[in-house]
Amino acid sequence: MLWYIGRRLLQLIPVFFGATLLIYLMVFAMPGDPIAALFGDRQPSPEIIAQLRAQYNLDKPVIVQYLIWIGGLFRGDFGTTYSGQPVSAVMAQAFPITARLAVLALLFEGVAGIAIGLVAGLRKGKIFDNTALVVSLLLISVPTFVTGFVLQYLFGIKWGIISTTVSGAAPWGELIVPAIVLASVSFANILRLTRASVAENMGADFVRTATAKGLKRGRVIRVHILRNSLIPVVTYLGTDLGALMVGAIVTEGIFNIHGVGGTVYQAVIKGEGPTVVAFVAVMVIIFMLANLLVDLLYAVLDPRIRYAK
Amino acid sequence: MPSNRHIERYVAPIDETPVAGVDAVDTSQKASSVWGDAWKDMRKRWMTWVCFALIVLVLLAVAFPQLYTRTDPDYKSLMDSLEGPTEGHPLGFNKQGQDVFARLIWGARASVIVGLLATVLTSLIGGIVGAIAGYYGGWLDAVVSRIGDIFFAIPSVLGAIVVMTVLPFRNVFSIAITLAIFGWPQVARIMRGAVLTAKNADYVTASIALGVSRGKILLRHVIPNALAPVIVITTVSLGAYIVAEATLSFLGIGLGDSAISWGMDISAAQSTLRVKPELLLWPSAALAVTVLSFLLLGDVVRDALDPKARSRR
């Protein structure tokens, strides 16, 4: 197992460099001079521009810039924004908020998605199942931002239960509705995955055996049906982290949350290269580690899967 | 190869061979294929026809919007701003005084073209790359898979946001290509897995034994038999790309301002949400119905291609 983890971690290294280089090239090969853009109409003297360009390494070839940047990354230096703030300070502000949002979203889609999917799968073809299927299809086909507007309109404007925007500190309570919006599509997908897989496992031989040997129904469902049905769901949760990070851009925009999504989006629009690359690099690391974790979880869920040396 | 070489072999006596079963096969009938069986199964389900009907309606709106409306979707009359339905304008007007129904019909074009184009591109790139990686294996597979991992590690809409802000021109083609650049590894992974399964099948071993060339085996035997999971992911991702286009347009980095798309209209409806929530409803509903019909078609195709699911029904 340790060997397997080690090998997988080694495989991540080229992928990490490739992905960050790709993003770096996309951001910094942009036409236009970010330093000139900083000053607008009142351009400073060429000396100051040259000095600033040197300070941000913009006078060097892109590949050299990348190497300097990635070197800094390994020393814990995420770079400096064009307004002179260290990117790590921006991160320290944004990441806790989005982490709270993501935890709530994952909790919601995991718990509610699996629970409803399980009940629907056990009662395939009944009213509960059909309702769950129709609702999940609706959630999948409606874009997140529409779900966001609708919930914001209903809860915020019509019924006045929540405020339509989240305050700067973004406490847990205010993030509940945004988290539900963020998780809505994934919730529906998890529900459908769980349902399909539970319905399939219901007819499996091991379930018949477990029932025949007199196990209580609760135990058959928990140990035999649910555990076997969770494998595709866990796979989905791993890749879903990427979707959540993108979804955060939209959700944070709607509810005015100053988290990772909002920061990245603003940075992309304003051409704040250093912020974009640093945030995306961290997102890529999180995404890769989550997928590794998923592969390791397989072994826990399915004893038949054993990772050889 | 010399054909006159003496080969010693054992031939079982006829009464020990179960030839009766072989004789019982009716060879005069047309041979059944995976696709033929799947189509036979799909034909019987009403869901297939509902999906087809909806998709045809949407495609007609894409190709000939004039069939549905004669009103110019760009024509603004501020006098009619936010007016309700009137004669000839069944859904009323938006804030700019444009006809909501006409924009709904004309908006189909951008969404569906982006969806179709992005899907075709990802399937082609991902399918070819995945098939080659899975079939030839070795260092080629390792290199191609790692390159795929690099693109896979960047969430596709995030990558698209970065690219779209850099691009000097934004139209349906640039959006579709951008989405495809970050979307192909998903198809490649699925294709690679399916090819790995198919290439070890008995019929491939038989073809190798018959001396068929490797390239021909890949094209004639492996790819056709590995195509099913790719077809399924294709129909599902078509919906996803339509949503992605709407998301990019919503964020203001999709199509340009003069373009008509459901995403742009939803985005515009945000400002009038308190006064006229219907403006949000119509484009969202059009988008949802389109995405839904492709999604459900994907479900039907998947069920039809999966013999296990077929026997369960």
Can you give a write-up of this model?
The complex is a heterodimer of chains A (309) and B (313). With 309 residues, chain A is mostly helical. Chain A has a domain of 211 residues: MetI-like fold. Chain A is built from 12 helices and no strands. The radius of gyration of chain A is 24 Å and the shape is flat. The two termini of chain B are 51 Å apart. The longest helix of chain B has 37 residues. Chain B has a domain of 215 residues: MetI-like (MetI-like fold), CATH 1.10.3720. Chain B is mainly alpha-helical and 313 residues long. At the A-B interface, helix 1, helix 6, helix 7, helix 10 and helix 11 of A face helix 5, helix 6, helix 9, helix 10 and helix 11 of B.
Keywords:
A: about 300 residues, mainly alpha, MetI-like fold, B: mainly alpha, elongated
CATH superfamily of the domain at 91-305 in chain B: MetI-like
* Gross morphology of chain B: elongated
Secondary-structure class of chain B: mainly alpha
Series of H and E elements of chain A: HHHHHHHHHHHH
Give unreliable regions of chain A as ranges: none
Number of helices of chain A: 12
CATH class of the domain at 91-301 in chain A: Mainly Alpha
What string, H for helix and E for strand, traces the elements of chain B in order?
A: HHHHHHHHHHHH
CATH architecture descriptor of the domain at 91-301 in chain A: Orthogonal Bundle
Summary, kept brief:
Chain A is mainly alpha-helical. Chain A has helices at residues 2-28, 34-39, 46-55, 62-74, 87-122, 127-141, 144-158, 176-202, 205-212, 217-255, 260-270, 273-301.
What topology emerges from the helices and strands here?
The complex is a heterodimer of chains A (309) and B (313).
Chain A: H1 2-28, H2 34-39, H3 46-55, H4 62-74, H5 87-122, H6 127-141, H7 144-158, H8 176-202, H9 205-212, H10 217-255, H11 260-270, H12 273-301
Helix pairs in contact in A: 1-12, 5-6, 5-8, 5-10, 6-8, 7-8, 7-10, 8-10, 9-10, 10-11, 10-12, 11-12
Chain B: H1 19-24, H2 34-43, H3 46-63, H4 100-136, H5 138-153, H6 156-166, H7 172-199, H8 202-209, H9 214-250, H10 262-269, H11 278-305, H12 307-312
